[in-house]
Amino acid sequence: xxxxxxxxxxxxxxxxxxxxxxxxxxxxxxxxxxxxxxxxxxxxxxxxxxxxxxxxxxxxxxxxxxxxxxxxxxxxxxxxxxxxxxxxxxxxxxxxxxxxxxxxxxxxxxxxxxxxxxxxxxxxxxxxxxxxxxxxxxxxxxxxxxxxxxxxxxxxxxxxxxxxxxxxxxxxxxxxxxxxxxxxxxxxxxxxxxxxxxxxxxxxxxxxxxxxxxxxxxxxxxxxxxxxxxxxxxxxxxxxxxxxxxxxxxxxxxxxxxxxxxxxxxxxxxxxxxxxxxxxxxxxxxxxxxxxxxxxxxxxxxxxxxxxxxxxxxxxxxxxxxxxxxxxxxxxxxxxxxxxxxxxxxxxxxxxxxxxxxxxxxxxxxxxxxxxxxxxxxxxxxxxxxxxxxxxxxxxxxxxxxxxxxxxxxxxxxxxxxxxxxxxxxxxxxxxxxxxxxxxxxxxxxxxxxxxxxxxxxxxxxxxxxxxxxxxxxxxxxxxxxx
Length: 483
What we know:
The protein is mainly beta. The chain contains four helices and 15 strands.
């Protein structure tokens, strides 16, 4: 019995010694493959293990496991490596791996203002045509709206167009009535006609949007002007039945032999001219709160805050003329004609705030509203001149002073403006804009308000009235190029 036990023990030991090298070779090969610094080119070529060798719950390594190679004789499943090696080309476990885009991190990147996308995440990248995609909003299929969206991070935008505007009617300052019938008032300064002028707007991107997409900040320069807001009116009486309700006594045109009453009362004809101009200059800081300029990041709605400096110049000029009885304008070298002027320049300097709200409709249309309000200091310059048709200056009889006065005044004014309009996007660089603008200013001097009831009242002429209001309105249209 003891001899049999000894024989069995010797056989077991001998069997273990014979199988140990093969087992160690298998285990060493598996450890070599899962080694952290293994060279891919040195990996042994293994054939996939048969499906019956796979054990549920084991972690795959490529297309086989260590346990599958060794069998399932009570061994633990091999743990997943800390840093799996790259997929080896040509191995049975080859797979196509797609890199996932990184979300925005706030790093603008060096190419922010050069047309280079900041991020590659959905909704922040650029198509091959370089406009921002519309993958976020869902209004259109991805890329379908590329035609109307701005280029990536547009560095510059230039708008060139024109405006056509007019102003509200001023208070009626009656200048003419029918002689002998005072109730029949005939003429007051005319309303301004429609005028026009250019409008230019330049926007420059400043920095980047830390949330990705187009830059959130821009600096903007704006100019628009309205010229030719003129007006004219006249009354003619072949029987010399025109007079003025203004008291023109104690004013002489050159000498005592030419009193103003001889020109303006019982006259053959009265004429009145108006000439107005408007100029606007702005430098604004524009900050978008909703993902950059309109259309960027696929957002159909955007809103921006606007703040900056603004200068407005409004010129209002009136000229009233009369020709004495029995004469015609342009005859006798103008010695039978008398004129006086009332000219004011309002120069407004101040600060404004506002907003720019945009909403895209479909792929090409964009509606916008741009309200602004501001407070201004108004530096007013006024002048008046009475003269005869041949150029001789009139005088005030009481003082002997020349009827050629001027004065200045500083006052306070407030302004409000509203633009409503629509954009049509031709492509990622060009768009057409049209809309309507209303602007109102309280605290301006108007030429009509400076004419006193008594022409000889020198102090009233130079006491500038500056509590008038101006309302202008009209259309604007133009094109924008962005790059």
